[in-house]
Design goal:
mainly alpha; 3 helices
């Protein structure tokens, strides 16, 4: 004989807290993933890959790759 779990008691505030924590965790992970991606794009450019090669390999638009690489160059050489 299988047992069913007890019915869940409604807890809107608890649900909201859990949902907000989940959203914050997902946003943090997305930020880490974006930083990792940007580092990999800059590394590929530093070792001689063309922007188009990087765009093809990452499936990012060419202009996105260009912005990532240019942003690093600007911060390395502020005028």
């Amino acid at each position: 004989m299988s047992r069913n779990p007890p019915p869940r008691v409604a807890d809107p505030e608890g649900d909201k807290r859990r949902a907000l924590k989940l959203a914050a965790t997902a946003a943090h992970r997305a930020d880490l993933a974006e930083a990792s991606r940007n580092n990999a794009v800059r590394f590929a450019a530093d070792v001689g890959a063309s922007l188009r090669e990087i765009a093809t390999a990452t499936e990012l638009p060419h202009m996105t790759v260009k912005r990532i690489v240019d942003r690093e160059r600007q911060s390395a050489n502020p005028d």
